[in-house]
Amino acid sequence: MAAPSTLINYHRQGSGTPIVLIHGIAGSWKHWKPIIPALASRHDVIAIDLPGFGESVHLGIPEPSLEHFAQSILDLLDSLGIEKFHVAGNSLGGAVSVQLLGSGRVLSFHGISPAGQTFGWYLSLTKVNLRAAVYGSRVIWPIAPLLVKLRPLRMFFAAAMVGKPQRLTAPYVLDLIEGCVVGTNFEQTLAHAISGTDGLAVPPNDAAGQFLWGTRDTVLPLSAAGRYAKAWPAAEIIPMKGLGHVPMQDDPKLIADLILKLTGKVDAGAAIAATRSVAN
User: Fold this and answer.
1) Contacts 24+ apart (CB under 8 A), 34-38
2) What percent helix, strand, coil does the chain show, rounded to 5?
3) For residue 279, pLDDT beyond 60
4) Nearest C-alpha neighbor of 71 from the set 38, 41, 48
5) Rounded Cα gap, residues 177 and 203, in angstroms
6) What would the DSSP string read from start to end of 62-120?
7) Which are the contacts of 248, defined by CB distance < 8 A and separation ≥ 6?
8) Rg from Cα positions in the chain
9) CA 190 to chain centroid
10) What percent of the chain has pLDDT over 70?
């Protein structure tokens, strides 16, 4: 469905403390499908399509920024009557999640290979690889449903984005390809959303945080986690052995468990604090 005030498409499932899931560039909310059921068992899951991706409308802004994306999410949450929320973001979605920290509304942050700490020649190489994935997907899209039925081909198509391509299912690979095809904001976002010269600053915040990084991420290197560690020393860095850049189907149980461990701790602390406040 789409929020009338923001025209952001989203998938909503489960009940409990809200958690917002934000996909990477040329993606959609469908990238989160493997872990949504586990998260929805304890949370009100809101998996969004960023503006100009998936089924969300294009903002119409020539130079979209992380701030524009973050504000569109806050507008959506306002329209849903949600104040405080957990957030998990992958790649570009991780950088948008960092931007959301400045709102003071984030309960816990979960960055899965978040963008924002690579620049120079490596960022240029990343852009080349992303363009190859996007435009290659658009070429094969008319026959993609047939191609992904063949296990060797779907492993080949998605090998750059995952760490364990042998675990990929045909529907999930089709979702990955579809995200590259239907997005209308790819080039503008690639050119303007992330600075190519400096690391992304982490705003002051009170949220608990963790960075989950696949050791087989070939898009954003694990070394970038070290720059985030300097910017946010209180957050935990958790390497995920053998996982790739979009790892939600590499090991959905591991990722869901890591997220739920931290959200559970935060929610339990909030409940204790609320009880004490009432008692006083």
Assistant:
1) 34/172, 34/248, 34/249, 34/252, 35/248, 35/252, 35/255, 35/256, 35/259, 36/11, 37/13, 38/252, 38/253, 38/256, 38/257, 38/260
2) 45, 15, 40
3) no
4) 48
5) 34
6) SS--HHHHHHHHHHHHHHTT--SEEEEEETHHHHHHHHHGGGT-EEEEEEES-SSS--T
7) 31, 32, 33, 34, 35, 90, 112, 255
8) 18
9) 15
10) 93
pLDDT band at 277 (very low <50, low <70, confident <90, very high): low
Q: Which two tokens stand for residue 39?
A: 């998260």
- What are the backbone angles phi and psi of residue 126, rounded to the nearest 5°? -60, -40
Spatial CA neighbour of 67 closest among 87, 105, 88, 97? 97
The residue count of the chain comes to 280
CA distance 95 to 136: 25
pTM of model > 0.70: yes
Residues 80 and 58: their CA atoms lie apart, in Å, by 21
Q: Domains of the chain, with CATH numbers?
A: 10-279 (3.40.50.1820)
Contact status, residue 247 vs residue 32, Cβ threshold 8 Å: no
**Structure token digits, residue 15:** 């009940």
104: left (phi over 0), alpha (psi -120 to 50) or beta: left
- Quickly count helices (H) and strands (E) in the chain: 10, 7
Give 265's contacts (C-beta < 8 A, 6+ positions apart): 208
CB-facing half-sphere around the CA of 249: CA atoms within 13 A: 21
The tokens 């400096």 sit on which residue?
A: 198
**Pair of tokens at residue 66:** 């992380």
